[in-house]
Specification:
Elements (H helix, E strand, L loop, with lengths): L5 E4 L14 E4 L4 E8 L4 E7 L6 E4 L7 E2 L5 H8 L15 E6 L4 E6 L1 E2 L2 E2 L9
Antiparallel strand pairs: 1-5, 2-3, 3-4, 3-10, 4-5, 6-9, 7-8
Length: 129
């Protein structure tokens, strides 16, 4: 299948008393919602497509991607499976956490390894009063 590679960034915030608010803009030519974050090592800005109806942020991967695959049976893999994402290699100790997801931007479904990497964001201050 000749399709661009995508990485899934899954964010887990346990015990946070406040929300993380990231500026999002809408691209009028594609109708996609985009967020800019700083990513990788060395850190550099990238634009992510935000799936407002899903748990992931999508980004295109290239040869300089510095992420680490999440192992199956890890806390992150179990949490992804609890969110409705399948771990297709759950019986393979030490194997990668394989996930199956739909990409709403190109109307397709695919399988990939769950990965983690360094992400830095600028959060907007949100008043609670």
């Amino acid at each position: 299948m000749a399709a661009p590679l995508f990485a899934l960034l899954l964010f887990f915030f346990y015990g946070c008393s406040s929300s993380l608010v990231i500026p999002v803009s809408k691209d009028p030519s594609t109708n996609q919602y985009l967020a800019t974050v700083n990513h990788g090592s060395p850190i550099s800005p990238i634009r992510l497509a935000v799936d407002l109806g899903g748990p992931f942020l999508w980004m295109g991967c290239d040869a300089s991607f510095s992420g680490r695959q999440i192992p199956s049976r890890s806390i992150q893999c179990i949490a992804a499976a609890a969110g409705g994402v399948m771990d297709s290699r759950s019986g393979s100790p030490g194997g990668a956490c394989d996930v199956t997801v739909g990409n709403p931007f190109v109307d397709s479904e695919g399988r990939s390894a769950l990965v983690e990497d360094t992400v830095a964001v600028t959060s907007l201050v949100r008043s609670t009063t």
